[in-house]
Specification:
Heme c 1 binds at residues 165, 168-169, 297. The protein has helices at 3-28, 56-75, 97-102, 104-115, 120-141, 144-147, 151-164, 166-169, 193-202, 221-230, 238-248, 253-256, 282-291, 306-320; strands at residues 39-44, 47-50, 204-208, 293-297. With 325 residues, it is mainly alpha-helical. It starts with a helix and ends in a 5-residue tail after the last helix. The model is unreliable at 95-100 (pLDDT under 50).
Length: 325
């Protein structure tokens, strides 16, 4: 936070607290000649205002809240860049979830521990690791083929998925535009246990340049779109699709295969199934071809660790495969 905003927040906060105290003092004084307990001469809806002092319990409670507020602001962060006398911090994650944990936050955590400062998030994570670490260590030693049959492990994997993966893939793992559906058994890089774990551990970077980086003219896009639209058996303009096939053979096949069935090694989608990451309408297909697509899935090995990724892998696999019992 800049010095200007730090000072601004500090001044405003202390001004409001001071104003509350002044208001209390003003309301606590009798500025009228009317005798205490007598009418002030005001009435509304049959209710008459009497000259009575503030209730002592209310006045003291008001004063206590002011003192508590000042003590809290002195001990804990809250006044601009003021760190607080206790040097307390809620978390070291200061630059975004993924980047912060892997870079700045880890360094900040180590520094806080070295200096003996208390960081609540770090303390909670340490306690959680001590409690649940042995459980996840045991899961890691269990082969994935066996873990997918463990209902308790799958429930743990589901909770981890909802906490970390649902933001993109949805709480039901059915994805959305630009985010793959993990329940349909259609996989860009493969749906076996080892490949799923590799995808989660190391992340994926998918990129298709505009027009696939090929010498395809704008005049060819409509025909190419029609060809791809009909690849999975949908009805379309056969003559236009035939023209589009010629454009497809200019180089699209290098990634998507001669028949459009994709390439899991490259993460190139299968154009013959009904699983469309960005939509399978003519409009969506044309947009994908013309402008290209790029998608990034972060690597989770440094964020969650292999133990948790191992459990999530079993859960994700179970979504599209019937585990053998």
């Amino acid at each position: 936070m800049s010095s200007f905003w730090s000072v601004w927040i500090t001044v405003i906060t202390l001004f409001v607290i001071a104003a509350c105290f002044i208001l209390l003092q003003l309301c606590n004084k009798n500025h009228t000649d009317v005798e205490e307990g007598k009418s002030m001469g005001h009435s509304f809806d049959g209710i008459e205002e009497l000259n009575n002092p503030l209730p002592k319990w209310w006045k003291y409670m008001y004063l206590i809240t002011i003192v508590f507020g000042l003590a809290y602001l002195a001990l804990y962060p809250g006044l601009g860049n003021w760190k607080g006398l206790l040097q307390w911090n809620s978390s070291n994650q200061s630059v975004g979830y993924e980047k912060g944990i892997k870079e700045d936050s880890k360094a900040a955590t180590e520094l806080a521990a070295k200096e003996g400062r208390y960081v609540q998030y770090d303390a909670e994570m340490k306690k959680a690791d001590e409690t649940y670490g042995p459980i996840f260590a045991a899961y890691l030693k269990t082969p994935l083929e066996e873990l997918v049959k463990d209902k308790e492990a799958l429930n743990v994997g589901k909770r981890l998925f909802v906490q970390n993966c649902a933001q993109c893939h949805g709480s039901d793992a059915r994805g959305g535009k630009g985010f793959p559906n993990l329940t349909d058994n259609s996989w860009l890089y493969g749906g076996d246990l080892a490949t799923i774990k590799t995808s989660i551990m190391n992340g994926r970077n998918g990129m298709m340049p505009p027009k696939g980086g090929l010498p395809i003219q704008d005049s060819e896009l409509k025909a190419l779109t029609e060809y791809i639209f009909t690849l999975n058996g949908r009805e379309g303009d056969k003559e236009l699709a035939a023209q589009g096939h010629a454009s497809f053979m200019k180089g699209c096949f290098a990634c998507h295969g001669m028949d459009g069935s994709g390439n899991k090694f490259m993460g190139a989608p299968n154009l013959k199934d009904k699983a469309w990451v960005y939509g399978g309408t003519r409009k969506a297909i044309l947009e994908s071809i013309k402008n290209g697509r790029s998608g990034v899935m972060p690597a989770w090995k440094d964020i969650l660790g292999e133990e948790k990724v191992h459990v999530i892998t079993a859960y994700v696999y179970s979504l599209s495969h019937q585990a053998k019992k």
